Each structure stands twice: as structure tokens, then as C-alpha cells.
Amino acid sequence: MTVLDLPFDTQEIIAGLKPWVCCESPTFDAAAVNRMMAIAARELALLGARVETIPGRMGFGDCVRATFPHPLAGTEKGILVMGHLDTVHPMGTLQPLPWRQEGNKLYGPGVYDMKGGNYIALEAIRQLVRAGITTSRPVTVLFTCDEEIGSPSTRDLIEAEAARHAFVLVPEPARPNGGVVTGRYAIARFNLRTTGKPSHAGARLADGRSAIREMCRQVVKIEDLTTDDVTFSVGVIGGGQWVNCVTTHCDAESLSMAKRQEDLDRAVEVMLGLQATGNDVQLSVTRGVTRPVWEPDAKVMALYGVARGIAQRIGFDIEHQSAGGGSDGNFTGAMGIPTLDGLGVQGAGGHTLEEHLLVDCLVPRAKLLCGLLQSL
Asked: What share of the chain is helix, strand, coil (3-state, %, to 5)?
């Protein structure tokens, strides 16, 4: 029996994935993320891995690292399977986005980004273990807690772990056409604060200077900077406490993304150089977490070639592309470690109340991961 003949079962995968999706795990709720980590850790232990829980920091959840026994452990660099178990969906999202299957679509918070991909990676390992098939290299699985906000507490861990491996496989969602990711754009985040002058909005409105008004002006200015080379967007904003007070402070978060590092570097200069529109209000801009550009090299393309050959033997083809939207593959790819991203499930609606995966992709995508683990 070859790895491509292993008895993957769609309904078994769905049943196994359900507890993962029904365990809500928003990034900013460390306890919720840790509950999800515990579910994954138990499954990894049952597969025979040595499982370690790495304590969280900066107020975020824990991470889980699992190493599988292998004859070459300690003598040969292995394969790192890397994914995140945090989601953008807040607690309670299961009410408007319940776990359910409608035809070929399976819905739920995080089912597409990226619990579905993580789970089929474990299913690939499970099938190999059951069949007694040894992977080509030692395998480590690393699940992290804060990817959805740029991995501020885990980048050092990701880079240290990746440096000990020959390949990195990232089961983030596939491209809409089922393709994989061989590069990702550079990304920078920024924190903005405007400061105005408070006053009573009814009795002394003219005496005040609204921080919200100033931030609105800045948002328009920032988003108008978008070009074909680099994007600028503001995704979070908040300010004020009382409607009858002119607001003193307003805070926002902005994101810039570029295909080339030099374009992002210029965007950073522009953002950090922003000025308030008047002397009676202030603006501060600080740089947040960043992801370096990851551009494919010959090693990445060779890795893609192996994956494409496996896919074709299964019965489908995969294209490749560089993609917007960051992942932890940015870090490992930029380090020069052959990385293949977008190996997870097909679907749509990530980060929305329409998030879903396509059921008929589960077995083929699991087989692709299985083939890579056995052949690299």
C-alpha cells in the first residue's frame, strides 16, 4: 500500500474536526486558546508524539510542540508542520455561525482559517502511524496562539523551531483554485492615536477639538495612499466615552501590505511621517508587528514541484502563487528555509460569518500532506 492508497474517510475527518471548531479560540482570550491547545495536544499524544506545552507570554495563550519518534531523530533535519489555533472570531460566534454542513459546505468559526487545515495535517500523520509507514524525515508539529494579530509573542519561537528543520509545511487555506502558496507579501501594522482638547459638547462645543474628527481625517488620508504597489487600510478604530463630551483621544490600527520589501519600507516611512492636520490636535504613529516579504527561490520551487507531482498522482493539479495576507510562512520563507504554504483546505468566507470549507477537498488535501510527509 502506498500513502496515496491509505483509507482516508471524509465522515471520520468531519467528526474529528467538529470538537476543534466548536472550541472557540479567539486570539485575545488566552484561556480559550489554551482549551483548544489542550484538545490538539491530547490528539498528538495519542498519535505517539512527545508533546510539550510552551507557556504563553505577553498575555497570549500557550503553544504546543509535538515531536514524533523517528530513526533519524537527532541526526537529520526534519519536517516542521506549522499552524495557528487562534481565530479572529470572538467568543459566542458559534451562535451566528454554528457548526453545520450544507451540501458540500462545512461551516463554523475557524473551520477554514485554519483549523480544517491543521486537522487534516494530523489526519495525514494518523494514517501513516496506523499503516506503520515511516515518514521520510522526523516530523514536528508546532501550533501557535497569535498568528491572527501578526504573531507578536511567537515569532522568535517559530524562527528558532524552523531553523532546526529542513522543510516547513503550512496548512493555511488553499488558494481559491486549490493552489498553494510559494511566497507572501510584506506586511506592517501601525498604531495611531490622535489627541484633541476636551469640552462639554452641549455648552462649550467650540472650545473643544475632537480627536475622533482628527482620526477620521487621517483615515481618509491613509487609505488614499493606496497604489498598485502598496495598500493602506485602517481596520480598527475607537474613541470617546461620553456623547456629550468632545473626545480627547481616539485610537486606530492600520495595515500596509506590499509585494516588494522596498515598497513596504517606503510605506513605513510615510506612515511614521504622518502629521496632524492642525496645531490644536496631535497625532502619534508607532510601528507594530511586521512580516517580512517571502519570495520563492529555487528550493521553494523544487518543493512545489514535489507537491505538484503528488497531487497529480492523486488526481488533481495545483498551481502556485505569491499571496497577500500574512502567515507564519512569511518568517520561515524569509529565513531561506524551503516553505510551502496554502496546503490546507479549500473554501471561502474566512474571518466572516460565512466561513466554510469544501467537504470534497478534505481527503485529497489530506493525501497531499501525507505524500509530502512520506517523500521529502
From this structure: 35, 25, 40
Give pTM, 2 decimals. 0.93
Range of the domain at 327: 3-185+293-375
Residue 218 and residue 228 in one domain: yes
Q: Where are the alpha helices (DSSP H) in the chain?
A: 10-22, 30-46, 116-131, 155-162, 211-223, 261-272, 298-314, 329-334, 362-375
Alpha carbon 312 to chain centroid, angstroms: 27
Cell numbers given for 163: 531553523
Distance CA 182, CA 170 (A): 11
What values do phi and psi take at 353, rounded to 5? -85, 10
Q: For residue range 288-302, list pLDDT tens digits in order.
A: 999 999 999 999 999
Please tell me whether residues 73 and 177 are part of one structural domain: yes
Q: How many domains does the chain have?
A: 2
Rounded to an integer, the average pLDDT of 251-263 is 96
Domain limit, last residue, from 244, 263, 291: 291
C-alpha 171/C-alpha 178 separation (Å) is: 12
CATH of the domain at 323: 3.40.630.10
